[in-house]
């Protein structure tokens, strides 16, 4: 492809690496950006630079924030006795949008997977266990996707936490089989959290 | 939405303005960008800034380039006798990918539309007529979308150019009814250009 100037081709090929955009939708997006240079392209470039400079993983929970420990971990309004374990930051955001959970989180960054050789250490599960030792946690809520890997991971964590005097629950009613948290509406997530059951 | 830091929410809301990305795919894209900060986010921000600084409309044809007159208009390899009229830069790129047209272009930036009150001046049709006076053009190829507005525009331009001793043709065979150029494969565009007919 050499129909556009080099600078624009470079932008198209980078945009095409975004999830949800292929080469042709990346081209359309870039043309749109060039047309809306002042209104969209320049602000977007600036916003990306700002995020690149400021965004970082929370050292406690793995959430994305702009400080060493994220706003949720440092908030005095959040219960320190409950930790909600999620696969991904997108799932944490989905939980927050539902506005029913007032504790803190632990972001695994994935699920156990024999196929992809992802083990407990890769997911920071030992780090989660250490948090439980240091912090006065009374309940761990496993809010993992209702996929096979998600449920395998949930059971692995439940086994790891057994005998520590910590209640381990999981989202239950409302999560459809095979469904992914990030695709559910807020009401479904709320119902699932309220009806959580002991494992 | 306040689940993510302000900087990230701002980036998400700007990304959601891109064609093809809604609020939820924008969130996914931004999370992906934060994870691939060095590999994707920083380069993308830089590429956008570069395009914002360098991209401009060619004063002759309306193509997007980085110079006052674009590479196609200034190329000595392109025939000066043929001008291909397209609605949009995306269509110009689609024509270039087909690699069969070796003349130059005129980008209208849209089609005539009574509904949207878009008249000939808005599309630079008088500018096209002036180009034909100044440049030694022998053929104008109308490569407009096979939509009602596209064909109305084609006929308007054909009428405007009548009696000037310029051959006016249009892409014909191969363009499906209701189809848009930018969605066609290169072979279809090639066939349509080769089988172009006089209006
Ligand atoms: Zn945190
Ligand atoms: Zn040009």
Bound molecules: zinc ion
The 3D shape of chain A can be described as elongated
What proportion of the residues of chain A form beta strands (DSSP E)?
Answer: 5-15%
Count the E strands of chain A: 7
What is the succession of H and E elements of chain A?
Answer: HHHEEHEHEHEHEHE
Query: Could you say what the CATH architecture of the largest domain in chain A is?
Result: 3-Layer(aba) Sandwich
Overall SS class of chain A? alpha/beta
Mean pLDDT of chain A: 87
List the quaternary state of the chains.
homodimer
Radius of gyration of chain A: 20 Å
Q: How many separate helices of chain A?
A: 8
What fold name stands as the CATH topology of the largest domain in chain A?
Dna Topoisomerase Vi A Subunit, Chain: A, domain 2
Helicity level of chain A: 40-55%
Order of strands, main sheet of chain A, comes to 4-3-5-6-7
CATH class of the largest domain in chain A reads Alpha Beta
Largest sheet of chain A: 5 strands, mixed
Domain Toprim (chains A, B): 81-176
Zinc finger (C4-type) (chains A, B): 58-73
GO biological process, one term (chains A, B): DNA recombination
Family (chains A, B): Belongs to the RecR family.
Summarize the structure.
With 199 residues, chain A is of the alpha/beta class. Chain A is 44% helix and 12% strand. Chain A folds into 2 domains: 6-54, RecR Domain 1 (Helicase, Ruva Protein, domain 3), CATH 1.10.8; 80-170, Dna Topoisomerase Vi A Subunit, Chain: A, domain 2 (3-Layer(aba) Sandwich), CATH 3.40.1360.
